[in-house]
Amino acid sequence: MKVYVTGYGVISSIGVGEKESLRALKDGVSGIKRGSNNTTKDYNVGAIELTDNELIEKFELNTHGSRTALLGMIAVKQAFRGHQINEKIRTGLISGTSVGGMDISEVEYKKYLENDGHDPSRYKHHSSGATTREIAAEIGVTDFINTISTACSSAANAIMMGARMIRNGMIDRIIVGGTDALTSFTISGFRSLMILDEDWCRPFDETRKGLNLGEGAGYLVLESDRSLAVSGKEPVAELSGWSNASDAFHQTASSPEGHGAKISMMEALKVAGIAPSDIDYINAHGTATPNNDLSESQAIKSIFKDSIPPFSSTKSYTGHTLAASGGIEAVFAILALRNGLLYPNLNFENAIKETGLVPQTKFEDSLNIKHVLSNSFGFGGNNSSIILSAI
Amino acid sequence: MRLLGSCKISENGVFVNNNLEEYYSACQTDWKRELYTKLDFEYPKFHKMDPLAKMAFLSFKLLEPKVDLGSLEDDSIGMLFANSSSSHTTDEKFKKSYYEKSPSPSLFVYTLPNILTGELAILNKWYGENIFFIQENFNPEFYLEQINFYFSKGLNICLCGWVESGPKGEECFLFVVENKDGDVTHDELYKCYKQKK
Amino acid sequence: MSDLKEKLKAQIIKQLNLEDMNPEDIKDDAPLFGDGLGLDSIDALEFIVLLEQHYDIKIADPSEGKEVFQSVNSLAAYIEKNS
């Protein structure tokens, strides 16, 4: 049974929705810049330049929640546009997040330490589960709600889980993806791991120093044939492949040969029933850390050998949006399929010496893009790959 | 599917196997450390783990002798875990570290609940699928549904767990299911989970 | 210098959660990483935090740490040099 995509929604530092995102992708305009608030001012980040209240007002949100939840609501509402909650279609939501409502909790905790009028009732927004429930409440999904927390592969795993549930007839229509907001928590954490770049990140470049953090949300609506017959929606793409594998090497670093990455890509190809040569574009995980980009390159080389398809990381556009990245990049993959696009890997100059791989450096359109592979590799050696295919 | 074994540990006690065949008493503040010393398996990395990874490691090592996993391919074992508080205990410690002194990398590493599956994969060199869900309570029905996905993909064994460390206390319930004839029910799993001293 | 080394050993044990160890278990010239104490890349980062917190020394590039953190001897020498 095929799994169809009938909606997609995205919000990131390069824009809200399809039009803004495409314009930035085409013009090579990155959303990464020096942060403008107390949390982000010392770092280059891919921040969304709207406060929580501005998000609520601009996007007419009814349910209040953490910033992570608000970003999720915006992207989910976009994805679900034209759909309706209908008792004939069992509809679910699977959302990935690593931060949850930490943006609220860390502010309240600081107030508590400083004896500055902290409000314990706000902690109700803290949990990852609360984030998903708040998003579900905004659009009225009640049949099935679940939360995944596997770091940077969370959204990709949500997409994979949704596909399986559809294929097994457990649900008819499911909204899948992820969301994460920028927080002092994650900035401090990545700073302590010394994998942030003080300048603009350089994915797959020999001189890359680390990542820039970002925030955002990306979701897809998946439907079965049965659901399409009732909803009457036109599929925009097919979710044809998915996979997850363990790297079994280190809590936060990837194995030098990219063993887990290789397995996840190969398995996704197997599920899709296509050969490596059928892939027209790889949207890489490409965080720009010395470790990931080498590891992922080795894995790509071992599968695609002398016929490496065009590949790029869009994280030099959006920053690394953590749990949201798999969702945001799935939307970019669909836009690539629908418009025949290849995205440039911004800020690239010199290939990694060990691999010599050169990513796509120009924006191209009007191409025949039929299959896109998207990688999302999370801490804990949690490696996921999905394949989206043209209708 | 067949239930090969289960293990429940908490500060209330330790139960190995679904028939409550034996138990260890471990009622003290550093019960995890005490359990580790009884294991007769040296793994210095244990001391650096957070409570979630420690409990998953301990339960696994207690269950391992009762369940034969040795002959399986290293990518034929899947892992399915969940809890309700995510990495709450370590999140609080990490927040404290960056507000009071400077952010601790060894704490930050564990501010994701799925690092525990990473630790099990590293320990055993397993390359199979793994996932971590956040749910309100242990829901055996959900696990059994998800396990079916793993088995239909071709995995032989699923190591599942509910590992919680947060405001509601600490507990770890681990169970192993095999893709063979058998009738494990969610009632049976729930009974094993609810065992108390 | 030997006071510094003893202090360092206690700080290392605390910072890195080396639970079953006492300062006497760490020899001055024993390799701290790899086959020695079996410390890894995350522990190396904790060393960087330790240097900053206790000795006010900042290491900006983690790869700089490789030479410095080889043993208690090299660590003590680095601290003496940069204090």
Short description:
By secondary structure, chain B is of the alpha/beta class. Chain B has a single domain (2-193), classed as Peroxisomal Thiolase, Chain A, domain 1, CATH 3.40.47.
Structure, described:
The complex is a heterotrimer of chains A (391), B (197) and C (83). With 391 residues, chain A is an alpha/beta fold. Chain A has helices spanning 17-27, 52-58, 67-79, 102-113, 128-139, 154-167, 184-192, 225-231, 259-272, 290-304, 315-318, 325-339, and strands at 4-12, 15-16, 33-34, 44-45, 91-96, 144-148, 173-180, 216-223, 237-246, 281-283, 311-312, 371-378, 382-389. Chain A has 12 helices and 13 strands. Chain B has one domain: Thiolase/Chalcone synthase (Peroxisomal Thiolase, Chain A, domain 1), CATH 3.40.47. Chain B is built from 7 helices and 7 strands; from the N terminus they run βββααβαααβαββα. Chain B has a 7-stranded mixed sheet with strand order 3-2-1-7-6-4-5, with helices on both faces. The relative contact order of chain B is 0.24. Chain C has 83 residues and is mainly α. Chain C contains 4 helices and no strands. In chain C, helix 1 (2-15) packs across helix 4 (72-82). Chains in contact: A-B, A-C, B-C. The interface between A and B is large, with 49 and 47 residues. Strand 6 of chain A pairs antiparallel with strand 5 (130-134) of chain B, so a sheet runs across the interface.
Structural class call of chain C reads mainly alpha
Average pLDDT reading of chain A = 97
Compute the separation of the termini of chain A in Å. 14 Å
Number of helices of chain A: 12
User: How helix-rich are the residues of chain C, as a percent range?
Assistant: 40-55%
Q: Which SSEs are present, and which pair or pack?
A:
The complex is a heterotrimer of chains A (391), B (197) and C (83).
Chain A: E1 4-12, E2 15-16, H1 17-27, E3 33-34, E4 44-45, H2 52-58, H3 67-79, E5 91-96, H4 102-113, H5 128-139, E6 144-148, H6 154-167, E7 173-180, H7 184-192, E8 216-223, H8 225-231, E9 237-246, H9 259-272, E10 281-283, H10 290-304, E11 311-312, H11 315-318, H12 325-339, E12 371-378, E13 382-389
Parallel strand pairs in A: 5-6, 5-7, 10-11, 10-12
Antiparallel strand pairs in A: 1-2, 1-8, 1-9, 3-4, 7-8, 9-13, 12-13
Helix pairs in contact in A: 3-5, 6-12, 9-10
Chain B: E1 2-10, E2 13-16, E3 22-24, H1 31-39, H2 51-63, E4 77-83, H3 88-100, H4 105-108, H5 115-124, E5 130-134, H6 140-153, E6 157-166, E7 169-178, H7 186-193
Chain C: H1 2-15, H2 41-55, H3 65-68, H4 72-82
Helix pairs in contact in C: 1-4
